[in-house]
Amino acid sequence: MTMAIVVHGGAGTIPAEREEIVQAGCKEAAAIGWRILKDGGSALDAVEAAAQVLEDNPNYNAGTGSGLATDGSIQMDAGLMEGHTLRVGAVAAVELIKNPISLARLVLESPHVLLVAKGALQFALERGMSLCRYEDLLTERQYKNWCATQNAHLVNELRYSLCELATCPKRADKQYGIAEVVQEQLLAIYPAQEVQGEKHGTVGAVAVDTLGTLAAATSTGGIVDKHPGRVGDSPLVGCGFYADENAAISCTGHGEDFVRLLLAKRAADFVAYGATAHAAAESSIAMLSTRTSGEGGLIIVDRLGNVGFTWNTAHMPYAYMTQDMQEPITGL
Ligand code: ASP
Q1: How many C-beta atoms lie closer than 10 Å to residue 218's C-beta?
Q2: What residues contact 76, with CB distance under 8 A and at least 6 apart?
Q3: Going from the N-terminus, what domains does the chain have, and what CATH number goes with each?
Q4: Which residues line ligand 1 at a C-beta cut-off of 6 Å?
Q5: Tens of pLDDT, residues 114-158
């Protein structure tokens, strides 16, 4: 049987100075997953290990290096699935977990499919997994990212208040002592801010092992500026990840749109109806573009070891390794 593994490091725009770092991380993860496959390990073990390596790498928005929610908390989502058995495990909005993908794996081994927030933490403790500290997950890069979004919100709120004063029936300048000219100057000094930050870094892996079994894994800190408790596609089976007897898929991008379209499952269905891995990836992301305004990408492998990957954002770092190769190929 043909083995193959593909990993991604999140769809988005990668600044030039980070291009090499994020490709190197993907290459390392693919190599570690590949070693497991080569030693006769399962696709499930390989995708978990690859995702774990990327979670431990602070350059990605998953595990260590996850983005912050608006309240400053770090809430992570992860899910994985095995194709032939249809076993699924996922966790959502979990805090203080160093490797959410490994907690998802514990859920997969249990009678459950998805555990969230406090209940998921309780489950982690019951299964002997220790909690990490908030500082273990926080990186300077993501902290600065969060500060930038908070500042943008503050400026926009200030502008809103100033505009409210201008339309106040009791004349702003008389009532509050703010002359219109001062008000205009303040609005000019503080132009409206677009709330943005780095929008990439979710991680994922898909693999097929020597037995032809497929598996998929996805892990993320979520989208930038997310509301606490917000859950995207990454831990939702059929949305951010999926595996059956034909294909395994891991997605990245604006999660709400992947949920609307059940995109990972659709990609698997394209393969089931005869599409190549590459064509299935292309058709799925084309659907994302035409049916929603969503941005993102996905990776896919089929049971014969054919790989596919595509995205409609500027970049999506990836790496893959198949039987005829000496080392993983990377790109973005
Ligand atoms: N899909 C992830 C989410 O919506 C984010 C990403 O892939 O960048 O939470």
Answers
A1: 37
A2: 62, 63, 66, 91, 93, 94, 95, 97, 100, 137, 219, 220, 221, 222
A3: 4-132+198-331 (3.60.20.30), 140-189 (no CATH)
A4: 10, 200, 202, 220, 222-223, 232-234, 240, 252-253, 255
A5: 999 999 999 999 999 999 999 999 999 999 999 999 887 777 677
